[in-house]
Amino acid sequence: MLTGVSATGRRPTREELDERRALGERAAEDGHSLRALVRHHLAATRAAWRTAPDSADRVLAAVEQAVDAFAEGYERAQRMAVREEEAARREFIDDLLYGRSDLGRLAERAERFGLVLSRAHAVAVAEGPEAYDDTAPVTRHVEAALRARFGDRHILLATKNGRLICVAPGDQDDVLAHFAKQAHAATDGSRVAVGRPQPGAGGVVQSYEEALSALELAGRLGLEEPVVRAADLLVYPVLARDRQAMADLVRSALGPLRGARGGPEPLLRTLEVYFASGCTAAEAARRLALSVRALTYRLERIHRLTGADPGDPTHRYTLQTAVIGARLLDWPAQEL
User: Fold this and answer.
1) CATH architecture, domain 237-328
2) pLDDT tens digits, residue range 281-295?
3) Does domain 104-232 have CATH number 3.40.50?
């Protein structure tokens, strides 16, 4: 083509440029280096230049068009490969987290993405103030932080339903702890839940579901901790298992608080913080931004209304269990 350009001054034809694009696509599919191929184009340019030194401008213009067409085809093939890889990765993540594929086949596919499903794995889920996808800056930042610290440790970072997901070997809790720290910082205060390590491909699904349940529980209970672990919340599903019995307890123990001026919520929050502070009045008052005297007055009101003394160990367990049940059942917002 360059020989014809230098001899006649013609421009590259549409067919010649289309051929360059097709060759660029084929070169990418065959795994050739674009840099090496551009070097070969320039070598051909030098050869044509020597044969027609008076047509330098025409040759350079033709080279510019030819290399541009070649690179366009090369990049088009690369984009297609990336899209196919992303689609395969997304399909794998969906199958992994929902257990919708044959476990043997799933284990084979997992190796392609750095997981060895014969080992136990744990899953951490981060939920931020907005939804995130695989291309979000937050996702890239957290992934870069994990790779920089741990390298290739069979870690899978992904997104699902707007949340960040990290799957790591069950015996490498430091990975999930670092993920939680980075996700909390990068998402401006997200909450992270960590499921328990579980064996096999099905274990990833189980740990993921535990983490999601822990996130939901933490929200309903109003927990302030940025990182919650499913292993530390196992008592709550047990308490909520008999919903009718729990509802009866909440109505019986806390129902009288509806008669308080301002409604039951301030007194319910007082009990919640008081128990969370280890029944230490000074610490509970600090957390509620009250004086100790004001806190003591609230506790006395609770005692008068319910007949149960929060400071009495005999009554304390009933009240604390009822407070937990109220949060689990969304009382008093929801009628029981």
Assistant:
1) Orthogonal Bundle (1.10)
2) 999 999 999 999 999
3) no
